[in-house]
Amino acid sequence: MTHTLSDQLTPELAERATSLLRAFGADIPEPGELVVRTPITGGTLLTLRPDTVETADAAITRADTAFRTWRTVPAPVRAAVVRRLAELLTAHRAELGELVTLEAGKIGAEAVGEVQEMIDICEFAIGLSRQLYGYTMPSERPGHRLMETWHPLGVVGVISAFNFPVAVWAWNTALALVCGDTVVWKPSDITPLTALACHTLLRRAALDVGADPEVHQLIQGDAEIGARLVDDERVALLSATGSVRMGRTVAPRVAARFGRCLLELGGNNAAIVTPSADLELAARAIVFAAAGTAGQRCTTLRRLIVHTDVVGPLLDRVANAYRQLRVGNPLTDGVLVGPLIHAGAHENMRTALERALGDGGRMVCGGERVPFGDDSYYVRPAIVRMPAQTAVVREETFAPILYVLTYRDLDHAITLHNAVPQGLSSSIFTTDQREAERFLAADGSDCGIANVNIGTSGAEIGGAFGGEKHTGGGRESGSDSWKSYMRRATNTVNYSTELPLAQGITFT
Ligand code: UN1
């Protein structure tokens, strides 16, 4: 392996990361025990000092104090911070994208797309600030008015994952801020530099519009630091993105203190391809959904359920496109598949493939490591034909493995589709409206996202994002997801001189 190439490249990348931080106006962190590596070479970009339990608690205190005032600022005025953030993100789009590439290994187009997703949610939140609607209902009593009012909730704790290090933060933060909440963010300890950049931009946005910069706090560190948000009564909502395993520990702890949780956990997303599908279009969508982001999206396509009549021609197209995918340094033009995040991700992929083959799976293509350096993990996206939906297929392996299953009858395909613990995203490829509607119906896909003729990944921010079953049930970003970030009061106002009781009760 070409150890020297990585050895040469790492100092260049480290230098670039430092100059990007400077471009955002961020202080270069003091060296410490948190080691920030780039998956491009596996080398170290920087080190920084993580928070301690005490500094994390102090950050929660600052957010709690800031909330007391922030909640009284009118929502359209609060939106000024988000508007300024959108401007700064637009100005720094390319630079922030580059930092995402350095830290998370995404190719340029996807990294910049992630920054665009941040700008999109900011725009959504700005409009939303004038639309935090509550219902009014007819009261059953004369001379009474009945209505619902939405109020700010409190401190929102955001725990985010490495794979969308900035967009998922923005989904939460843009909404939380216009809703009148303050935010304490614990990013993945794999991507602390992008977090530092976003935190710096947000503080600058607040200062630029004369708002309190303490509305946003950043705490860095491992799960022990994140646990401060889980267990602190002052954190009214914990919005956590990560594995099902993480959700299983976090959810009961937040519930035990009657806090609110918004969970966005693993997916095991499938697409059904029917005989009427436009195979050319389906193949293109499948390649992006399954191999894009090196299979490291929660919405990545992991299972393909194909009608036996079209499995041959479809797989020919997909495998052909797979063979042409350029895998390598995501900073190089034309590369479509960057590295896996670390050795552990590669080990999980290797083990999953071994188990799949042990279950009778047949390798169609890919799966092998692409040499780049000893400490970085590049792989060719894999396709495996499976005789059945075995245990390994029902698990989420955060790597580019596409398992292919076949079906004869659509009901059977839908049963297979739903027979996994996760319920995030799903697709059907068909030109038959009956099949499409069957998939979208109540007894069709059981996922939070169900698409027709597009892949499972790459959702727009305008719809609610999230999934069912082990995916955790949370909804983030568009539609009415904002309601998770607010508390609702039902108000009954008596403007009469009488005191009629509800349900016709007399009490004299
Ligand atoms: C994630 O992988 O955690 O729909 C989020 C998508 C992106 C968001 C993915 N808009 O693929």
UniProtKB/TrEMBL annotation:
<feature type="active site">
    <location>
        <position position="264"/>
    </location>
</feature>
<keyword id="KW-0520">NAD</keyword>
<dbReference type="InterPro" id="IPR016161">
    <property type="entry name" value="Ald_DH/histidinol_DH"/>
</dbReference>
<keyword id="KW-0560">Oxidoreductase</keyword>
<comment type="subunit">
    <text>Homotetramer.</text>
</comment>
<dbReference type="InterPro" id="IPR044638">
    <property type="entry name" value="ALDH7A1-like"/>
</dbReference>
<feature type="domain" description="Aldehyde dehydrogenase">
    <location>
        <begin position="34"/>
        <end position="488"/>
    </location>
</feature>
<dbReference type="InterPro" id="IPR016162">
    <property type="entry name" value="Ald_DH_N"/>
</dbReference>
<comment type="similarity">
    <text>Belongs to the aldehyde dehydrogenase family.</text>
</comment>
<protein>
    <recommendedName>
        <fullName>aldehyde dehydrogenase (NAD(+))</fullName>
        <ecNumber>1.2.1.3</ecNumber>
    </recommendedName>
</protein>
<dbReference type="InterPro" id="IPR015590">
    <property type="entry name" value="Aldehyde_DH_dom"/>
</dbReference>
<dbReference type="GO" id="GO:0004029">
    <property type="term" value="F:aldehyde dehydrogenase (NAD+) activity"/>
</dbReference>
<dbReference type="InterPro" id="IPR029510">
    <property type="entry name" value="Ald_DH_CS_GLU"/>
</dbReference>
<dbReference type="InterPro" id="IPR016163">
    <property type="entry name" value="Ald_DH_C"/>
</dbReference>
<dbReference type="Pfam" id="PF00171">
    <property type="entry name" value="Aldedh"/>
</dbReference>
